[in-house]
Amino acid sequence: MATVNFAATSLLPSDFCSGNRSFSGCSVSCTKLVYRRRTVSMCVASNSTGTSATVPEKPEIELEFIGPKPSGDGSYPVERAKEISGEKLLRNIMLDNKIELYATYGKVMNCGGGGSCGTCIVEVLEGKDLLNERTNAELRYLKKKPESWRLACQTIVGNKENSGKVVVQRIPQWKK
């Protein structure tokens, strides 16, 4: 069951909220409501032209996280997530979606996303072009690793303009 709470806030003069008005191409419809023995005025403004300003939809990145070890039937477990392009680090996406990022040692001894320990290594299998360039911390920790390996704490997913799919292998060092 939803609960609606009203706060006593006056954005317009009280004499303005007494019906329907139009000015400068906008129309305002006002209603008085009684909530818990208090009268509350609510006004809604809209364009009189009938067109509404729509907020453009932000591009999304689909992510697939492949588990480090195969399950009993030989297939690798896959977990999925969606995020708005350019807003989060790969590490935060994984932690927010409760997707395992660290091996046993890394769970205890990680740097918390500072890029100074190298315990959040992932391998990007698809969608490398949807991620930022390697940072200086990644160049330092991953200089002898394959180009597809990244530090999740340094990897920004998307650039606020692109959309697509990124496939990530979790804990790639376990594949050996």
Can you tell me about this structure?
- By secondary structure, the chain is mainly beta.
- It has two domains: 42 residues, no CATH class; 116 residues, Roll (Ubiquitin-like (UB roll)), CATH 3.10.20.
- The protein has three helices and eight strands.
- The strands form two sheets. The chain has a five-stranded mixed β-sheet, with helices on one face. A three-stranded antiparallel β-sheet has the order 1-2-3, with no helix packed on it.
- Strand 1 and strand 2 form a beta hairpin.
- The longest helix is centred in the middle third of the chain and has 7 residues.
- The protein starts with 19 loop residues before the first strand and ends in a 6-residue tail after the last strand.
- About 8% of the residues have low confidence.
- One of its GO terms (biological process) is P450-containing electron transport chain.
- GO terms for molecular function: 2 iron, 2 sulfur cluster binding; electron transfer activity; metal ion binding.
- It comes from Turnera subulata.
- Keywords: 2Fe-2S, Iron, Iron-sulfur, Metal-binding.
- This is 2Fe-2S ferredoxin-type domain-containing protein.
